[in-house]
Write a structure and sequence with these properties.
mainly alpha, two-stranded parallel ribbon, two-stranded antiparallel sheet, DNA-binding
Length: 97
DNA sequence: CGGGTGACTTCCC
DNA sequence: GGGGAAGCCACCC
């Protein structure tokens, strides 16, 4: 299942972002958004974890990591409105089932 | 197997 | 939009 999540996250193109819930759904783990976060932490550094945000484009990460995630996203061209990502422009929609 | 935990989500005030 | 509460799922002890 770590693999499933990894695959889903890897599908997110640069400059786009997705929510934990969306990733979970794409990985076939709908309702297990927390597990996505769990997988992201475990594989930290091996996948574009910074492209995964909370519902509404909010960065749920705390501390330095949160700030870093924001910087990385902006570096990829993702725009922020206040403390959230403009989901209306950068939300990546996984292949509809 | 029971209990606690968390980078979640959604509903309600 | 912020704060609180409940539901959810996998992991660890």
């Amino acid at each position: 299942m770590f693999t499933a999540i990894h695959k889903a996250v890897a599908k997110i193109p640069k400059g786009k972002v997705a929510t934990y819930g969306a990733v979970a759904r794409a990985a076939g783990l709908e309702g297990a958004a927390r597990q996505v976060a769990w997988a992201l932490r475990g594989a930290n550094g091996r996948l574009p974890w910074h492209r995964v945000l909370g519902a509404g484009g909010k960065i749920l990460l705390t501390g330095e990591s949160g700030m870093e995630q924001r910087i990385r996203l902006e570096a990829e061209g993702v725009e922020f409105r206040g403390g959230r990502v403009r989901m209306d422009r950068h939300e990546f929609k996984f292949r509809a089932r």
